[in-house]
């Protein structure tokens, strides 16, 4: 019988000579820095400037053949616009006028009596429409009831007629007085034409006439 062989150790080849390194470090990639806001704005301005310059160049190429007519038309439009502003601006800046139309007031009976007395040559009706202070003022100037009656009779004989009267309006005054505006149509003797006379009556708080203009 064969004797068992002793098992010889297996020789391990030596590792290659050289330094031993650890695991490879991760690869780092470089990135561009983010653009700043001023830089973006500058680029945008340059882009817009170049775009505007290109449009201006194209417009110049189109307008150059008719440059004279374009300049003349522009000048005329400018003059027309300037003159229009001179006409419009003063009207816009001007304040709106206040409403100065006379407000509607019921006419005072004394005023109506005076006008009807004119139409009928009734001096008494006219004189009684005056206030006591107005009568005294007239008498101080030598214009009495008799003088008024004589004046109306003279107008009747001359053919002067007060055909109609038209009430325009009235306004109240601060001191409880009022003013009434009338237009009276008068026919002139020996004339086919008529004329209009305006009257302004001022009455006191009692409704009597204190002034006639």
The major sheet is characterized as: 4 strands, antiparallel
Number of strands: 4
Rg of Cα set: 55 Å
Strand content: 15-25%
What's the total helix number?
A: 6
Strand order of the largest sheet: 1-2-3-4
Order of helices and strands: HHHHHHEEEE
What is the percent of helical residues? 40-55%
Word description of this protein:
The chain has 213 residues and is an alpha+beta fold. Helices cover 45% and strands 17% of the residues. It folds into 2 domains: 41-91; 109-212, Nuclear Transport Factor 2, Chain: A, CATH 3.10.450. The protein is built from 6 helices and 4 strands, in the order ααααααββββ. A 4-stranded antiparallel β-sheet has the order 1-2-3-4, covered by helices on one side. The longest helix has 27 residues, at 37-63.
Task: Describe this protein with a few key phrases.
213 residues, alpha+beta, Nuclear Transport Factor 2, Chain: A, 2 domains, four-stranded antiparallel beta sheet, 6 helices, 4 strands, 45% helix, elongated
Layout of strands and helices, then pairs:
Elements: H1 37-63, H2 67-93, H3 109-120, H4 123-128, H5 132-140, H6 145-158, E1 161-172, E2 178-187, E3 194-203, E4 209-212
Antiparallel strand pairs: 1-2, 2-3, 3-4
